[in-house]
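User: My collaborator and I are trying to settle a disagreement about how two of our proteins should look. Neither of us wants to argue from intuition anymore, so we agreed to look at predicted structures for both before our next call. Could you fold the first one, then the second, and keep them clearly separated?

Assistant: That sounds like a sensible way to settle it. I'll keep them separate. The first protein:
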Amino acid sequence: MPPVSSELLLVHERPERLGGGSPQQLLDHAVRLGAYVQKLEYQVSGWQAWYEQENSK
């Protein structure tokens, strides 16, 4: 089994829920949430690559 990169083991902090607010607050929240989702997508693709590397043998 290949070693797992430490980046794949990170726990990313989810932005707090927005309980209302102005349009600017909503946009700011969308930016923070989008950045969070991008980190998760990168992490999932890393796990998929690790899995494929392990199972391609």
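The second protein, kept apart from the first:
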Amino acid sequence: MISGVGSAKAEDSVRVNNTIYLSAGPDFNFKVFMNKKAKRFIKKNDEAWATFNNVVRLYNDSTGQFLLMSEDEKADFYEAVATINSKLSNMRNEDAQIWLKKVDVTEKVFAFLWENKTENKPFEELYELPTISVEPTVGR
């Protein structure tokens, strides 16, 4: 082994990061974890799993489109989260409990963003632009 160079096992790459919720990097790690530890769950609940991953991907790739999701799409996401949380809470793995917290925080962050998004209004409706009258100047 070369001094100063670290080594890693394949399992280490699936460890839980320090991020609070699922975003681009942790999102991938969560998929790897679930594919490794909950294959049957994913196959049995493929629609919920796909819905959850699609919403997280949309958040990462296009926040604008994410904020424009319909109420039905949001309801499907919340249902998928409940299904995934149920599975994670029944797993006896320490990492599963950490992922459970991250999925829960992700749901809360997304709910906050959806509930607090600003309305799309044309610029003219946001501000009334003052009119400026130009008066001729009086000579000196």
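Some points you might bring to the call about the second protein. Residues 1-18 have pLDDT under 50 and may be disordered. Residues 94-115 form the longest helix (22 residues).
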